[in-house]
Amino acid sequence: MTVKLEWRGVSKRFGAQVVLDGLDLAVERGRSLALIGGSGQGKSVTLKLALGLLQPDAGAVYLDSVDTTAMRPADRRKAMRGIGMLFQGAALFDSLPVWENVGFRLINADGINRREARARAIEALALVRLGPDVADRFPGELSGGMQKRVGLARAIVGAPELLFFDEPTTGLDPITAAAINNLIADRVRQMGCTAVSITHDLASARTIADEIAMLHQGRIVWRGAAAELDTTDNAYVRQFVSGAAEGPIAAHW
User: Fold this and answer.
1) Strand 219-225 to strand 162-166: parallel, antiparallel, or no bridges (unpaired)?
2) In what order do the strands lie in the sheet with 66-67?
3) pTM
């Protein structure tokens, strides 16, 4: 299969702290990968490098076999239009109604007029099981689960080929989290896009991912099918799954 996104020999440090140390990771087109690991192991940095928000100290990130770290700014902006992002905590604009949150990139990046953007926003809201009556409400009037669904609608409104999910169930109760996980999995399958998620929630990883990779001390220490998460004898994964204090992973204080 064709590789959609790849981190090749990527290293990143902040001062004396090494966050990524020669990271090699590839995601095939149409596949969903969840990246797990303890706090401070570089999951968010990995995502930010793919989005071009950070530059690697060594190595490169490839999108559709093109080195994004060497792109001109205009080419990078064009490439990033094919990416959707669900932020941790939804990250909605409190001062904008729901439909403008969903249609924000359509209006401000794609130059689509407000009437069409509103119509497309309402279509995207329907895909995440929110009715048109929600469109003119403000984020502060919505529950946490509804805000997450609005964030998902914003991520998919541009029909992206690549979706990123940053801790998609943070702050949600178990029932709402399960519903969000199922909705994400359904949307990814229906759209046929590539997806990369970072999460501490193993139930989320099992639901939304075809494959799971574990990041520890800047490198991938295990990768396998989601179904193998509970059967692997990898010591890092076993400790992470069980939540044991003793093992190769030190507690992050």
Assistant:
1) unpaired
2) 17-28, 3-14, 58-63, 66-67
3) 0.91
Q: How many residues does the chain have?
A: 253
Which amino acid would we find at residue 68?
T
What residues have CB less than 8 Å from 168, skipping those under 6 apart? 86, 88, 148, 180, 181, 184, 197, 199, 204, 208
Q: Pick from 69, 157, 162, 173: which is nearest to 119 by CA?
A: 157
| β-sheet with 194-198: strand ranges across | 83-86, 162-166, 194-198, 32-36, 211-216, 219-225
Rounded Cα distance, 128 and 33, in Å: 21
User: Tens place of pLDDT for every residue, the chain, 253 residues?
Assistant: 799 999 999 999 999 999 999 999 999 999 999 999 888 889 999 999 999 889 999 999 999 999 998 888 888 888 888 899 998 877 899 999 999 999 998 998 888 999 999 999 999 999 999 999 999 999 999 998 899 999 999 999 999 999 999 988 888 888 888 988 998 898 888 889 999 999 988 889 999 999 999 999 999 999 999 889 889 999 989 988 888 788 887 776 5
